[in-house]
Amino acid sequence: MTRVLTRPLLEIKNLDVDYGLGDEAVKAVRDVSLTIHRGEVVGLAGESGSGKSTLAYGVTRLLPPPGVVSNGSVVYHPPTGDPYDVLNLSHHELRKYRWAETSIVFQGAMNSLNPVHKVSVQLMDAIKAHEPTSSKASRLARAKELLRLVGIAEDRLEAYPHQLSGGMRQRVMIGMALALEPQLVIMDEPTTALDVVMQRQILGQLVELRERLGFSVLFITHDLSLLVEFSDRIAIMYGGRIVEEAPSAAIYRDPKHPYSEGLLRSFPALRGARRELTGIPGSPPDLRGMPTGCSFHPRCPKAFEPCSTDLPILGKPDDHVGEPRTVACWLHPVTAG
Amino acid sequence: MTLSESTAAPVGEVVLEAVGLTKHFPVRRRLSDLFSGTKAAVHAVDDVHLTLRRGRVTALVGESGSGKSTVARLLAQLYPRTAGDILLHGTSTKVHGGRRFRTYVKRVQLIFQDPFGSLNPVHTVRYHLTRALKIHGNAGKTSADLEAALANLLTRVSLTPPERYIDKFPHELSGGQRQRVAIARALGADPEALLADEPVSMLDVSIRLGILNLLKDLKDRLNLAILYITHDIASARYFADETMVMYAGRMVEGGDSETVTQNPAHPYTRLLIESAPDPDRIEGIADPTVLDRGNGEPPSLIRPPAGCRFNPRCPHAMPRCKVDLPPRLEIGDRDGHWAACWLYDAETVAKEGIGSAADVDSAIPTPPALTLTEEAR
Questions:
Q1: Cis peptide, bond prior to residue A268, ω within 30 of zero
Q2: Half-sphere exposure (Cβ direction) of B354: Cα atoms closer than 13 Å
Q3: Residue B266: exposed, middle, or buried by beta-carbon count in 10 A (0-12, 13-18, 19+)?
Q4: What does the pLDDT read at residue A48?
Q5: Mean pLDDT across the stretch A135-145?
Q6: Rounded to the nearest 10 degrees, how much is the dihedral formed by the CA atoms of B6, B11, B16, B22?
Q7: Is B217 on the interface with A (CB under 8 A)?
């Protein structure tokens, strides 16, 4: 899984997302920088309310009001041509960019199909919007190919969503996301509503497709155990900020941030010794009244003096050598720069 | 105050027992059915046997649609059963509501999956708990008794100090706190058995363990019998003493949790365990699809497959699996470990050979537990 990742695809820089305006705005995402490279699967983990979905919507400019991107940039590097900032695109440019360059599979994708249209119509619709000159026959052929790609028999093309099972609907959504061969697929909790057996089949298929078609994936979930297995790199969010980012194996073997450690200790293991697990005490923070300093300090078992007052910066810890990784914690201080 | 900290009843005493429990939900009939005389029904639960003992946790694991929640609702007597029996302390009980239902629910309480839906948003925590205490006669005589009982309930579910939570509305609490209130409400009846229907699957991962540890602690202190329904087999291993696996309305395997998860016998249990996320499998993704000949979907329960219900997906299927329903067969590696699978019937295997009905290559390994059984015989 380790490969040299040099060419960036999407660079998120210092992104802030607020809900509402002015002093009463709730800061859902704060100062997030994250780079997704070509052909990479980046996992984004965190509890509900940590801002992970908001980040995905902010990056794709899908935020519903009152959500606003108040700061930062999202630079997209197309395969050919100059990089551009997605946040500055005009309405027309955005329409062209969406789905063709970046597509998204929504949370509860099972319900994002239109119940009154056949699968074929919905698959062809996206192609038609982007390639208005294509013939109907070619679109139909493409829709068939997409279904085959995600392992569904062609004859289901004429089915309505209610005639498909949850897993099949989810596969149709993934097929639809790949319709225009995007460079980046954002998946927002794509398998949460599915059973484990189905979840594994779909993820296995996704990994295979990724290897074949070479797109990048931003995989958002609260299930860290799944991410460790499936992604190349993991970023962990807490209270709207990324608190740790590292290759998945490194996070699993040696989590630096106490929150990552807590998350990893929250899963009962299927193998190995049965041990007493504690989870993380307390509840997730309220975004309206964020604690000062490190937002995790009220729940942190290792909190000490500076944690409650000073905000730790995300960076490469001074005590770390080897693979690039960053962490925002006073236990691993970062020299700025 | 009548809530008993430790009841005289010994650990392991049978509280609730299901014998051959069956539930079929009728399906809307068409005119043609009327003439053919067939009665279409969803075979949601068929022939389920299970025993809840004091101070023990029994887990029921299965996918959605396997009938595990229906079992919980049948045991809570929210649905009338089609066949079979529910024994409370050895006596058959069938209640339809009214006073007899109340006396039943006083002893057997159900906790629902969704704490966002199971608490009334227009009432405070105090209202929810007072109601439970009053209905089940645990409120005491004076208002001071009631206050003490309320405080006691909240302390018991670690919502301390009680004054901070008692007058809150559900929307002011986090998911984990709401689920604790739902548990406190169930405890208000001072029950002997707790049926927990996916009590943690709606909660954040970091909170889940807190709730499971709370239930574990309550089980020990109050000597409760707990039925833990889940789709997460790893949490069953962590929390439950005994684990049962359900597939398409039938029990397929059972035994103590450690044996079932470490040495799964039924092909379906193996598929389930292989499919569970496992961070230790970090190098490459194992392909559990070799364990599944189907498309990852359970069969229709209106016309379930004949014989073993897993046979259309099973890589080891034999001709007999498509005809005869496998009985519970002892595995022999550990006491009480059984599986409803013909692979553990030495005669059938000798006669028909593993995988003879399935057109699969011989790369699929022989189940490890099988060789063990044969040695044991």
A1: no
A2: 19
A3: buried
A4: 81
A5: 92
A6: 140
A7: no
Which of A179, A65, A67 is closest to A119 using CA atoms?
A179
Question: Is pLDDT at B296 greater than 70 in this prediction?
Answer: no
Q: Which two tokens stand for residue A186?
A: 């954002």
C-alpha span between A54 and A64 (Å, rounded): 10
Helices (H), chain B: 31-36, 68-75, 98-107, 125-135, 143-156, 162-166, 175-187, 205-222, 233-239, 257-262, 267-275, 346-352, 368-376
% of chain A residues with pLDDT over 90: 36
Read off the amino acid at residue A55. L
Tell me the per-residue pLDDT of B198-226, one tens digit each, with 9 for 90 and over. 998 888 888 888 899 999 999 999 999 99
The residues with which B368 forms a beta bridge, in sequence order, are: none
Helix (H, G, I), strand (E, B) or coil at A185: strand
* Residue pLDDT, tens place only, B333-346: 888 899 999 998 88
Burial (CB count within 10 angstroms: exposed 0-12, middle 13-18, buried 19+), residue A30: buried
Distance CA B250, CA B49 (A): 10
Parallel/antiparallel/unpaired status of strands A184-188 and A102-105: parallel
B220 touches chain A (CB under 8 A): no
Q: Residue B283 above 60 pLDDT?
A: no
pLDDT of residue A12: 94
Give pLDDT tens digits for A83-131.
Answer: 999 999 999 999 989 999 999 998 776 678 999 999 999 999 989 999 8
Q: What is the mean pLDDT of residues A168-175?
A: 88
On average, the pLDDT of chain A sits at 87
Q: Please answer whether residues A237 and A47 qualify as being in contact, where contact means their C-beta atoms are separated by less than 8 angstroms.
A: no
The strand pairing partners of B243, in sequence order, are: B59, B255
- What percent of chain B is modeled with pLDDT above 90? 54
pLDDT at B359 > cutoff 80? no
* Cα–Cα dist B46/B66, whole Å: 11
Facing residue for A279 by CB, picked from B209, B237, B258: B209
Task: Note the pLDDT tens digit of each residue in B303-320.
Answer: 889 999 999 888 888 889
Which ipTM was obtained for this model? 0.80
User: Encoding tokens for residue B186?
Assistant: 């169930």
Cβ neighbours of B282 in A, within 8 Å: 228-229, 248-249, 252
Q: Is B258 on the interface with A (CB under 8 A)?
A: yes
Name the token pair of B24: 């079929």
Closest CA to B184 of B125, B107, B117: B125
Interchain CB distance below 8 Å, B63 and A197: yes
pTM, to two decimals: 0.85
Which residues in chain B (292-351) have CB-CB distances under 8 A to chain A?
292, 295-297
Q: Could B285 and A207 be called an inter-chain contact, meaning their C-beta atoms sit closer than 8 Å?
A: yes
Cβ proximity of B13 and B88 under 8 Å: no
Does the distance separating the beta carbons of A165 and B279 come in below 8 Å? no
Do B278 and A167 count as a contact with CB atoms less than 8 A apart?
A: no
Contacts of A271 in chain B (CB under 8 A): 262, 278, 280
Residues 6+ apart with CB under 8 A from A80: none
Closest Cβ opposite residue B282 in set A199, A201, A252? A252
Show the domains of chain B with their CATH numbers.
14-27+40-245 (3.40.50.300), 267-279+287-376 (no CATH)
Say yes or no for a CB contact (<8 Å) between B282 and A274: no
Q: Which tokens hold the place of A299?
A: 């729940």
Domains of chain A plus CATH, in order, are 7-101+183-292 (3.40.50.300), 113-181 (no CATH)
